[in-house]
Predict the 3D structure of the following.
Amino acid sequence: MGIATEELERRIRSCTLCRLHRRRKNAVPGEGPLSARVMLVGEAPGRNEDLRGVPFCGAAGRFLDELLKIAGLKREEVYITNVVKCRPPQNRPPRDDEIEICVKNYLRKQLEIIRPELIVVLGRTAAKALLNEEVTMAVDHGKERKVRFSGRGIRAFVTYHPAAALYGAATRLKLREDFSRLAEIIKAMKA
């Protein structure tokens, strides 16, 4: 891990820039290789993530591992993070100011360090933060977009957040279909 990365993680773990730090147990910077070609970005840490300081380590994380397998990926080869690095109270959606602070101070820097070729955007909150527009998951899931960060175009693949699948079989099926489509994109990237 480079000095810039270690410093960024330290800043995330000790951050007090918004109200979310007051109730957190652990900020969750993200994890994965800094050379990852694929970056997954979710909304915010949940209860298990807050307790352990690791992204996607609960039930949604176990389902995400299944989805990664469908896409021909291993957790060890992707970088996984969230838009917001601290758990919002009662798992409420992050507020606009909380998102803005984390994107400006942390997520943009992570994107600059890792320089992924593809971002898998998990859910509406992540889509709004990364695409800078509202999306309707029922319409926009499974689609590829382009985003610009630091003057560089990056491919983005929009899908549901894995936690949404825990509450509905239809969303679970859509996620599996989306990750099957993602497998085609990944194969083309590796060719």
User: Anything to note?
Assistant: The beta strands are 38-42, 79-82, 118-122, 143-149, 152-159. The first strand starts at residue 38 and ends at 42. The chain has a mean pLDDT of 95.
